[in-house]
């Protein structure tokens, strides 16, 4: 698994959602839940990520599931859990 997690197609779909999660936690802790007319740059970046994340996870699955199924399933699970973190914050607070 160590060799597979070093591949960019494995760790990028894990790191990006964790960055968004940290951004959301920091933003909410500093400014609170603020409703604005314009969504802002953060919301637009989140929407772009939300469209690209399934493509990144799908690419990893197509490329690595046939080659190393046990390692790939574990990393896919990590990618999915990492993606659900910021999504759950957005849905919980209805941002």
Would you summarize the structure shown here?
The chain crosses the membrane at residues 12-34, 46-65, 72-93. The protein has helices spanning 2-5, 8-31, 41-64, 69-93.
Kindly list the characteristics that best describe this protein.
95 residues, mainly alpha
Describe this structure in words.
The chain crosses the membrane at residues 12-34, 46-65, 72-93. Keywords: Membrane, Transmembrane, Transmembrane helix. This protein is mainly alpha-helical and 95 residues long. The chain is 81% helix and 0% strand. It has a domain at 47-95. 13% of the residues are buried. The model has no long low-confidence stretch (mean pLDDT 91). The longest helix is centred in the last third of the chain and has 25 residues, at 69-93. The chain is built from 4 helices and no strands.
